[in-house]
Write a structure and sequence with these properties.
This protein is an alpha+beta fold. It has 18 helices and seven strands.
């Protein structure tokens, strides 16, 4: 599947003017609230389809108007509204006409009457997340930036090369804004866990999302783990090759660092994850692999040894054997490396990676016979059986995304939507 890497708009985020209003934007907010109250979380129902049909400029205008409505839900007497510029800096005043203010107050009152205001905002976040997870993002031409609303620029890459670049819809940005306006409680934590896992399972590499989740919940081992895994992915050869081949418009830069820079970010997050949950075997696995890539082979052996035998998936145990073999070989523990590689081969007799590793390991030791034997076993593997868990390792951290989402949706589902 193609990868999706998010761009940081470096030079355009805090400039420009508020967009013109070609139609009644307040009515759109009212239609949005109706869709939120009727939408069944986890589905792509008629209300989700209606909101999904709005263009990106319309969604940006909605994002601005929702900052007003959310404030009025909290404080109906508010008369002054501000928005934080996308690129940072001092908050900007939003001018709201007296007529619009009356109508916005009526919408806010309807939201309060529908139930707990926090639940209304959460339902809004679930709606936009459902759209983002269902609709295939179609890039639009990059237009005039909006200083008051986010601009989401993405690059689609595959096979180590860029395929497409453009402006994409801001459903994730809107969902994050709504979640962030609710308490930092179990829902917010669960929402970021589930959506971050979904993104990584689908190779949607949104660093803004994962890093922001950790900023909100800096002590959460699950979010630290997912953040670390994302930066581990961004350090991979496929992503790094795409970044090197990228030719971006003036004013844009990728928010992807060098291999070492991304590995250091991954190491920092994963180290914190295992410190906060010592029994987190899968985090030890990724941490061990990352520090091995950074050259700390002794620590890698220790971390991978802690993971081995405690992982929740036999395919991960197989990958742990491969990584442990490489780390042991790097510090000259030949017998231990051989044993780890052979353990991996025994766990998955049809996989290519253990045989390649054994061949390379034997060749480096000068054992040509053993190297040729491993290559012969590799050549004899049946084509149909070459499903190697190593190939899916960099997305394995998101494999439980559907279960996390079902748990998130369940309290908000109802048989008779309003």
């Amino acid at each position: 599947m193609p990868f999706l890497a998010v761009l940081l708009v470096a030079a355009w985020t805090a400039i420009g003017q508020a967009p013109a209003e070609p139609w009644d934007h307040v009515s759109r907010v009212d239609r949005w609230l109706t869709a939120v109250l009727r939408h069944q979380p986890g589905s792509f129902d008629a209300d989700a389809v209606a909101v999904a049909s709005w263009s990106n400029p319309e969604l940006q205008e909605l994002w601005i108007d929702l900052t007003v409505v959310v404030e009025l839900i909290r404080n109906p007497k508010t008369v002054r509204f501000t928005v934080n510029p996308v690129g940072g800096g001092r908050p900007r005043d939003l001018r709201v006409s007296p007529n619009d203010l009356v109508r916005f107050r009526a919408i806010a009152q309807r939201a309060r009457a529908a139930g707990d205001p926090d639940d209304v905002l959460r339902r809004g976040a679930l709606l936009h997340a459902d759209i983002a997870m269902t609709m295939r993002d179609v890039h639009e031409a990059i237009g005039t930036p909006n200083a008051y609303a986010p601009e989401r620029i993405t690059v689609q890459v595959g096979d180590g090369r860029p395929l497409d670049i453009g402006s994409s819809t801001i459903h994730w940005d809107t969902a994050r804004m709504l979640v962030d306006r609710t308490p930092r409680d179990d829902f917010a934590r669960a929402w970021y866990r589930a959506t971050s896992a979904w993104m990584q399972d689908r190779a949607d590499h949104d660093t803004d999302h994962a890093d922001h989740a950790v900023a909100l919940f800096p002590d959460d081992p699950d979010l630290l783990f997912l953040d670390g895994c994302l930066h581990e992915v961004l350090a991979s050869a496929a992503i790094q090759a795409s970044v090197q081949a990228m030719r971006l418009p003036s004013g844009f830069s990728m928010n992807v660092g060098s291999t070492r820079a991304e590995l250091k970010l991954a190491e920092n997050a994963l180290r914190q994850a295992v410190a906060r949950r010592a029994e987190f075997a899968e985090a030890h696995l990724h941490y061990g692999r990352v520090v091995d890539e950074l050259g700390d082979h002794q620590l890698a052996v220790a971390e991978l040894s802690r993971a081995a035998g405690a992982l929740p998936d036999t395919r991960l145990e197989y990958v742990a054997d491969l990584f442990l073999g490489a780390a042991q070989a790097s510090i000259g523990h030949d017998a231990e490396a051989q044993a780890a590689y052979e353990s991996a081969a025994a766990r998955d007799p049809g996989a290519q990676s253990p045989q390649l590793a054994l061949a390379q390991f034997a060749y480096r030791r000068g054992d040509r016979v053993a190297a040729l034997q491993a290559l012969d076993r590799l050549a004899r593997l049946p084509e149909a059986g070459r499903d190697d868990a190593w190939w899916s390792y960099l997305g394995s951290q998101g494999r439980n995304a559907n279960d996390l989402l079902e748990t998130l949706w369940w309290p908000f589902r109802r048989e008779d939507p309003k």
